[in-house]
């Protein structure tokens, strides 16, 4: 019943208003009672003294017992609101204006009486002789008895009869006041409170509905919280958070879809590239097995050499797959250290020199002056250069040239591998780094669409850089990336 935020707010408001109403009634009742006591005591402060003098209770300085009895009897009949008591000097009750059995106390505390006679601040409450637990406002005066001992006339201003009638009306009044105050508070407070809560929760309900629709659409529908620039409250902040979350979820879903598509494409390409050398290897070995006696030594050697090439190609492809998978791991650490990029490039070119000569390709190194040390993982940077030079050798015809150049930049060293091969069509430049990418026109197609360039791009990214390519068909291709300078204290 109270599961919604609106219902909980409404119930909380009702309880709050009821508590405030009850507190108001208690405070107003206490203040009213205090005011009435002060008013009655101030109005009748001289009543006891007037009774002594006005009713002639003292005759020639001596207490007139007959006048006292007559006064008691008179006020019992005429004004039952007051109760009159005669006290001795110790506060013991000597006589009173009441029916027998009504007076419970035998003594009255004289401290409030002394405070009254000395002009204490009203209201002053004294003992009620008819009740051990209550205190009431009073009027008092001091005089002497027949034997000269001190005595007090103690007048309770709001006696038992008055209190009974007052309580009857008061109960009825307080009930009506309580009911009226609570009812009015609840009606007015609830009316405005519910309107306010409805205005506040309406926007929250709209946001909840948007979230539910977004979930029901499997996070595909582009649902957004419209927002209101005039209101920058918590609901708007929640709406902004929902928008950010929805965008992030959809970006992640798109990324997952793209990764799934790439995974399917990768599996298909891997299957194709693995199947081709495997089938060729199997075919040559099977042919040798079936016709070994029919082949001469030269033919058998040629078949074995071809099978070995396919085996080498297969091994290289598997190694590249494992290497790329290792680089894809988020926890793959970089063993960075300062090194001379020119020396590394020189060593790699020497490794490819024989292969280049066999193919009739000239391999050159062009190093700028005073190159600084760079920071990086030497083994991985070597792998980048090996892949780029190997790719260039694969696509550079006989008589061509491959140039590895190094130049200093503001924040590091720029390394470029340029060939005079077949070049890359402009529409394919943005795709050459994709895994198993194959060009449509086969301008730079080789034995297989390997992973060398994809591995190179991944390694450069791990070093915080970007590898770029520029080319024109028939004019060769240029691959370049930069390495940061080594820190001065390295």
From TrEMBL:
It holds the Pfam family HisKA. SUPFAM superfamilies: ATPase domain of HSP90 chaperone/DNA topoisomerase II/histidine kinase, HAMP domain-like, Homodimeric domain of signal transducing histidine kinase. Residues 239-269 form a coiled coil. Its EC number is 2.7.13.3. One of its GO terms (molecular function) is phosphorelay sensor kinase activity. The chain crosses the membrane at residues 173-197. SMART domains: HAMP (SM00304), HATPase_c (SM00387), HisKA (SM00388). Keywords: ATP-binding, Cell membrane, Coiled coil, Ion channel, Ion transport, Kinase, Membrane, Nucleotide-binding, Phosphoprotein, Transferase, Transmembrane, Transmembrane helix, Transport, Two-component regulatory system. It catalyses: ATP + protein L-histidine = ADP + protein N-phospho-L-histidine. One of its GO terms (biological process) is monoatomic ion transmembrane transport. It is an enzyme of class 2 (transferase). Residues 198-254 form the HAMP domain. CDD domains: HAMP, HATPase, HisKA. Residues 269-487 form the Histidine kinase domain. InterPro entries: HAMP_dom, HATPase_C_sf, HATPase_dom, His_kinase_dom, HisK_dim/P_dom, HisK_dim/P_sf, Sensor_HK_Regulatory, Sig_transdc_His_kin-like_C. GO terms for cellular component: plasma membrane. The keyword Ion transport applies. It is found in: Cell membrane. PANTHER family: HISTIDINE KINASE 1 (PTHR43711:SF1), TWO-COMPONENT HISTIDINE KINASE (PTHR43711). This is histidine kinase. It comes from hydrothermal vent metagenome.
